[in-house]
Design a protein that fits this description.
heterodimer, A: mainly alpha, 3-stranded antiparallel beta sheet, 3 strands, disordered N terminus, B: Rossmann fold, 7-stranded mixed beta sheet, Gpn (chain B), nucleotide-binding (chain B), P-loop_NTPase (chain B), ATP/GTP-binding protein (chain B), hydrolase (chain B)
Chain lengths: 115, 199
Amino acid sequence: MKARRRALVRPHVVTGGRAHPSRNIFDLVTLVAGTGRAAAGLSPEKRRIAALCRDGALSVAEIAGHLALPISVTKVLVSDLVDSGHLSPRVPTPADEPSKIEILQEVLDGLRARL
Amino acid sequence: MDSALASEIHLPDTVRTAVKLLIAGPFAVGKTTFVGTLSEIRPLRTEETMTQAGAPVDDLTGARDKTTTTVAMDFGRITIGERIVLYLFGVPGQQRFTPLWKDLARGAYGALILVDTSRLEASFDVIDLVERQGLPYAVAVNRFDGAPVFPESEVREALDLLPSTPLVTCDARDHASSVRALITLVHHLLAADAPQEHA
């Protein structure tokens, strides 16, 4: 599917005052999952994203890859969908948030286990 | 993607932390093969249109239009344990992709740079890009049939690597070999990070 070119220049609007600080930081590997909110009234692209994420979490990059959307467009659409309550970011709770060293150690152990 | 397997594309519910690593290198060095060998999902491809405004030298046409380039990136995924997912992005290493690199490097833990000994000079750009983004990295020689085999010291010298930069040899088609190359990188990242951070 061809992405709409005009979406490339659409500004990524950042608004303040919502619960989770990470929600406006959309990286390629930001994880989001569907919330189950009805997709009525959404644009076709947003519907497709909501449907793709309905059954579980994916990264922004995977959403872009599965739906053949440019990453810049995907970031904007995902951000909108988080704002509208259709997607929620999947992040560790502060108490469970591993340090970078813990993460790297787990990755190292996990990779070694694959040999 | 087989629709019957649609539920298998999602991450386990317990995964909440994503780690981004870049697999960088010149054209046809084996980035896509490497990512495909390691990924638990069929590798995905994304395309990004890159706009280059204000290039340092006007191009021959003299047109005022911005030049746009479409950059394709293949990436894959490895779920590690219960709570971490590792994403591997194959990234082209030419200087003209610098704008893309800024976005890619943000939040990345590090890069594995793949090199081909039959054209080591093709890797100069990518090493420069990675260093300018301040990303820690390791270098893996992707073993191609018929490519010249140089002593490690010569490869290091040709690429002007610091003594602390790991250099390994791998076969991007082989799973264990590719895992070992990735382990070398992660081990290096851990060593680089450990002294500064007290967890």
